[in-house]
């Protein structure tokens, strides 16, 4: 086995040394570690760029898209190297990409592109690494159709606001905050947490907060999810437990991290405060009735109730699925991937609130947005995203939206959306249901 490994290593080194004669002696070596992995496991793709003597200017290294995998590059992942090639001293850098396979089978890792720079940081030449094959297996019990987490450590914590859940009246809301951390797993690789909703409860998910940081060559992915539950009626409700499956690389077994559910007692709304006023008005003498009615009408007209209702209606319109999709289509008219990704996340959340999580075409949306995700998180240059790419994405998402709304409409009318106005009856301040912008890497 050792001899075979040495033969493979010599084959990897031989190719870049042949190219070195054509590029002023610069050596490029590329490899993957480990050579086999489970779906969702982090695989390191190394690209070593060595210069004879000393390195004049650090080169630029780019890894093309890898079909069936996500690729991440972190700025801290560059290590200074010193080596000897054919007895001569060489110096350079090692560039590392984190690759996460998303399907089983054999993945082909394409050659990296190395752009050599002169001292004015202008392109002076282009070299290539070497292609590599990666064997990926899917352990029993894992659903590879959804994001898979494979790690040695994963933690899940949750809290409720208010805590403990209680003291809620009909029309009120409860917020659930779930925090997950995992080693060598990017936050965006963790799946969305969904569960069945009891009748009379609506769930609204904010875009997740993703935070990836590197500590001593170990990637720590942290994802924070906020879910707001709005209770439309009084009664007893059981909110579901939410589970994050993950493959334990150390024990080689499937585990489940669970956020326990909660039982919530929702009280009936208090009676209208105007009822005692009207009751006392009934006991007034007949000549006072016109005065009371005029006074009440003036108070209602001049009060803030009407303006609040109008503002709530406008907020609901801005938060509707229809408005979110209009913003998404506008974002898909230009060559800017980040606004398109942010708008896609918001529309996806609104569509799930409208038709229900069980009817969401998640796999189709992920497939449609695959090119966009690769540009933002796969190491590709943002300038490679064009207006044509954006237009194709918008058109495809429009088709998926039409089909999803048509399937969810009870009368077959795909354009008629259910009312979505929790702020009118909610006792929660508007800031609790306002959607924050997710920070992109």
UniProtKB/TrEMBL annotation:
Residues 321-388 form the DUF7939 domain. Residues 1-20 form the signal peptide. The chain crosses the membrane at residues 284-302. The keyword Aminoacyl-tRNA synthetase does not apply. The keyword Signal applies. Pfam families: DUF7939 (PF25607). InterPro entries: BatD (IPR025738), DUF7939 (IPR057699). Keywords: Membrane, Signal, Transmembrane, Transmembrane helix. This is DUF7939 domain-containing protein. It comes from Methylobacterium frigidaeris.
